[in-house]
Design goal:
The complex is a heterodimer of chains A (about 170) and B (about 190). Chain A is about 75% helix and about 0% strand. By secondary structure, chain A is mainly alpha-helical. Among the domains of chain A are: about 50 residues, no CATH class; about 60 residues, no CATH class. Chain B is an all-alpha fold. Chain B is about 70% helix and about 0% strand. The chains are: A mainly alpha (about 170), B mainly alpha (about 190). Chains A and B meet through helix 3, helix 4 and helix 5 of A and helix 2, helix 3, helix 5, helix 6 and helix 8 of B. The complex binds zinc ion.
Chain lengths: ~170, ~190
């Protein structure tokens, strides 16, 4: 009886050819002599028989060309982003994206404000009244919704293109 | 050292070339595996149109992720994992869609290209196919994957365990449960 229990545990693997030679032989001998286990094995054989006879389907003749057209559409940027960012877990990838966004925004902001800061730097140390005006106008600008030199300012300058639009945005925001 | 031009390249060799952007190597890989992957997905998903779309996605993913492929892993194992992820995502999306939309009646017949030319034979084949999918549809995803990989794709337990990231014992247990479920279904 105990023997049957051991055989039943192995019978599925036996059917799938996943037992070693010694196990295979002992199961075969047991099945010849045990009616109950043989019945169990035959029932198991019916499972695969019932799902056999599924035909093979084929792709259309243009499949390879379609795939190649698909990969030609995926640019080097997709491949780059996929390989650089995808291995990271989702939160890390999102953080990386946000960091890249902030850094590029800050960089743009700095580039944009450079024009306004340059006169100050050239005449350092600040000793003329003109410079005070520039400084105060800069500090007054900081009350704008989009102060010059801010990340938002840099972003808007790049995306919208002209100072005029930025001014308008600054007011309307 | 340059390889002999006549030497048959393994999938893994081809993948190293694909990782460097070699489209010829990629075409060869697609041609070698397209039929197998299409039939694997069809058996798992049960829908030919989905199988065609998903198999195309599998190859796009292979191309996009080629540099992440490590030669130590068998290419087919890696490709099956990509296919399974895409299939499971698709199944999840369909499930969500079905919550909000009334499910469409299942297509009973799938258009299949068979050698049998007579309409009677074709009908018989289609009926048989539909019966088999009725059986496979009763299996939970993991069991259906195990059966598909073992019975239709002819893989070993060891290979399936790598693809499904489970132990060999767990694969054995999955197949035992799948067979029990199939038995229950055909006894009805
Ligand atoms: Zn017995």
């Amino acid at each position: 009886m105990n023997r049957c229990k051991d055989i039943r545990k192995k019978i599925s693997a036996f059917q799938d050819g996943e037992v070693n030679q010694a196990q295979k032989e002992s199961i075969e001998i047991h099945l010849q002599n045990c009616r109950e286990c043989k019945k169990e094995f035959e029932a198991m054989m019916l499972t695969y028989q019932s799902i056999d006879k599924l035909p093979q389907i084929e792709h259309g003749p243009m499949f390879t060309q379609q795939v190649m057209a698909g990969i030609n559409k995926t640019s080097w940027l997709d491949r780059f982003l996929n390989n650089i960012l995808r291995p990271l877990p989702v939160p890390a990838a999102m953080t990386a994206m946000v960091m890249i966004g902030l850094l590029s925004g800050a960089l743009l902001g700095n580039l944009v404000i450079q024009d306004q800061l340059n006169p100050l730097e050239l005449s350092f140390p600040w000793n003329s009244p003109d410079q005070e005006i520039i400084v105060s106008s800069l500090s007054l600008d900081s009350f704008n919704a989009v102060p010059p030199g801010s990340i938002a300012d840099g972003f808007l300058r790049v995306t919208l293109g002209s100072d005029m639009t930025i001014q308008n945005h600054g007011v309307s925001l | 050292m340059e390889k002999h031009p006549n030497k048959i390249q393994t999938d893994e060799d081809l993948m190293q070339r694909v990782a460097k952007g070699d489209k010829n190597a990629f075409t060869t890989l697609v041609q070698l595996h397209q039929k197998s992957i299409l039939n694997f997905i069809w058996r798992f998903m049960g829908d030919k149109t989905q199988a065609e779309d998903l198999s195309q996605e599998v190859f796009l993913k292979v191309w996009q992720s080629a540099t992440k492929y490590e030669k130590r892993a068998k290419f087919s194992t890696w490709m099956y994992r990509i296919a399974i992820n895409l299939c499971l995502n698709k199944k999840r999306a369909l499930k969500i869609k079905n919550i909000f939309l009334a499910p469409l009646p299942l297509k009973k017949q799938t258009q299949i290209n068979t050698d049998c030319t007579t309409p009677e034979n074709q009908l018989l084949k289609a009926e048989q196919t539909s019966q088999i999918f009725d059986i496979l549809n009763t299996l939970p995803s993991a069991q259906r994957l195990a059966v598909t990989l073992k019975f239709y794709q002819g893989l070993t337990y060891a290979e399936i365990s790598k693809i499904l990231d489970r132990s060999i014992l767990a694969v054995d247990a999955l197949l035992v449960r799948a067979k029990k479920n199939i038995q229950k279904k055909i006894e009805k």
